[in-house]
Structure formats: C-alpha cells, structure tokens
Amino acid sequence: MTQYRHPPKTRICFPFVGDSVGGSHISAALLIQNIDRQRFEPIVILHKDGPLRHFLTKESINHRFLNIPCFAGTTPKIVDIAASIARTTPTLYGFLRDNKIDIVHSNDLRMNLTWPFPTRLATARFVWHQRLVVSGSPLWKILCSASNHIVSISHTVRETLPASGHGRATIVPDPFAKYQSLPHEEAKAQLLHNLGIAPPASVIGFVGNMTHQKRPLMFVKAAHLLAQNQSKIIFVMVGDDRGGKLSDAQLLAKRLRIERNVFCIGHKYPIEPWLSAFDVLLAPAVLEGYGRAVIEALLCGTPVVASNSGGHQEIVTNNDRGYLAAPDDADAFATATQVLLNRESRVPEEERALLEQQHSSENHVKCIEAIYDTLIQR
Q: Which residues neighbour 129 within 8 Å (Cβ) at sequence distance 6 or greater?
C-alpha cells in the first residue's frame, strides 16, 4: 500500500534588523501569525536585540538571532553598500543554504539591500515589500533587478517604482487586526484622566515618528491656531523620537505659548485606545506610501485631516472620513479640524466596515500566499 506523503512546506525567511518597531513590523507580524502553517513555515530572523524582540515575544512569534557585521543601506553611498553586501553575504548565504530557505520576504530598506544578493546566490526567491514612496536613486533599479517579486502597499508606491519593476509588482494593502474599539466618550474620559485634564476638552492627536517627513512641527503650528479659538483643547503627540524632531516640536510649542496644551507621550502599542479617544487625528506627513495611522484612526471611528499628498489621497476624499488639506499649510489644517470639531461626528459604521474588509488580515494573507505559490512554481 502506497503511503501518501504531504508535500514539503515552503520555508519563508523574514529578516529584520530588530532595533525598532513600526507599521511594517506590525503588518509582517499579522502575516506571520495567520499564514497557512500546513503549507508554509515562517522563520523570523533578528540581527539585533532591541524593541522588536520584545514585540515579537509579546505576540508569541518565535524568532532567532543571526549576527552580521553590518547592514547595507546604513549610509546611502554605493561604495559603502557594496562593501556591506560583500561582508555579510558569506554568513547569509550559509544560513540560507543550511536552513533550505525557499523565499526571503524583506520588509525594510536595510534588509532589502542586505539580503537579495545572497538570496539569489542560494537560488532562493526574494520578495521586496515596499511601503515607502521610492526616490529616483539608481539603488532602486538595482533592487528591482535583484527581486523576484515586489509587493507594494498602494498605487502611490507602485507608480514610483522604476519601470523595470512594474511587471513584477503586486498591490497588496497592509493588514489591520480586528479591534473592538472603546466608545469614543469612554476612551476620551480615560485619556483625560491619565493626563490629569479635567473634562470637557477637545482632543486632537498626532501619530508618527518625530521625523521631518511626518511634519510634527506642522502639527504644533496648527495646534497654535486651534488653541486661539478654543480654551479647552489639548494636543497629544504619539510616536518615537526616531528623527530627532521631538525637542524642536517642544521648543516651538513653548515659543507659541501652548506647551501646557501639548502632550508628547512616546510610542504606544496598541495604539487603538488612544486613537479612539481623539476627536480628530491630524496627519500632516507628506509623501506617505499610504498612511497606517490614518487607517487605524478611521477604523476606530476617528475622523482625519490629512495632507493632500502621497497615499493619503487614496484614503481620504473630503467625505465622512475627514478632509485633505494642502501640505505644510497650518491654516488649512486648522480650518478643516475646526469644521470636524463643530460637527462632532464620528466615521460612519458603513465606512468603517468597508475599510475593515479592504484591510483584513485574511485578504492580505491570501494575496501574499498566492505570490509565494507562484514563485515556487516558477
């Protein structure tokens, strides 16, 4: 009697630096947690001990460490990138060969530049997952040629890819976990209590790393204009000081004499309880690949004022979800925010249900699994 043998699982390697936690890591974690374990075996690699290890441990995601001497992309110089690749390739090639890795799925710039050459050398497949708008650097053309497939999170990102990569690029929206958000008034009362603010008060939020691209200073400028019209209003800034702009934002708030209204509370996970508490989320960032915080806010029912730039244009269209404002225009942001505050409305349930369907983990996993299957068949 012939014994039926299951086909071998496809082994997927997910490499990360490990020194930060952001939207790409949260999205990748949802994929890893929900992938079909009957057909795929995810292997998560960290190169550094840091915040990501704590996040993965909390999410019950197994991971292992692989030490390498450097990362390509730490500096933008071609010579430095080539030298880093040369130094790390022997270690990575040996790991891929010894562990019989079929596909490497990379999710951030340093990994996207460090892993493709040893992956192709080991005859494995390389998936480049791009979440940011791509510049005109020749590096992207090199990365296109080194990738077997490209996953783009939005039309905005895909259109900025080199032409050579369009044929191998699939648009797959980022996934979002289902979250039963607290009623707005309950979440808001809890936030005000935690900050020591007596109700009632309007709460305007900002979520993002303190980088120039996220425009935290623009948020403070809009906050100053809004504070002139309302006596009971506070501004909550959530995010790591990864770009070094936190002190600049705090100094600007002090110069504008609204420092008592502005609360910088660092990174928060999960973010949903905070988003549910906001009356409005301001997203002044420019050239976003899509805008994870914008989607998260809308899923919590919080309307948004976002810059009319990049991927925001695919999410907000001046409707019940909120408004688009001219980039770097504090007056436009303040005016649109005041309209939403006066309206006192939340994102309608039907809009939230539509977004939840578009960004479900189930849809995301199915799309990525189909890409894996195609690569293995080739």
A: 24, 28, 105, 106, 107, 150, 151, 153
Q: Which two tokens stand for residue 249?
A: 């934002």
As a residue count, the chain comes to 378
Domains of the chain, start order: 10-175+360-377 (3.40.50.2000), 184-358 (3.40.50.2000)
Question: Which pTM was predicted?
Answer: 0.91
Q: Is 367 exposed, middle or buried (0-12, 13-18, 19+ CB in 10 A)?
A: middle
Please, where are the H alpha helices in the chain? Answer: 23-34, 51-58, 78-98, 109-114, 116-121, 138-146, 155-160, 184-195, 216-229, 246-255, 272-277, 292-299, 330-343, 349-358, 361-377
DSSP state of 256: T
Q: Over its length of 378 residues, how does the chain's per-residue pLDDT go in tens digits?
A: 555 566 789 999 999 999 998 889 999 999 999 999 999 999 999 999 999 999 999 999 999 999 999 999 888 888 999 999 999 999 999 999 999 999 999 999 899 999 999 999 999 999 999 999 998 888 888 889 999 999 999 999 999 999 988 889 999 999 998 877 789 999 999 999 999 999 999 999 999 999 999 999 999 999 999 999 888 999 999 999 988 999 999 999 999 999 999 999 999 988 999 999 999 999 999 999 999 999 999 999 999 999 999 999 999 988 889 999 999 999 999 999 999 999 998 999 999 999 999 999 999 999 999 999 999 987
What is the rounded distance in angstroms from the CA atom of residue 296 to the CA atom of residue 301? 9
> What tokens does 90 get?
């022997």
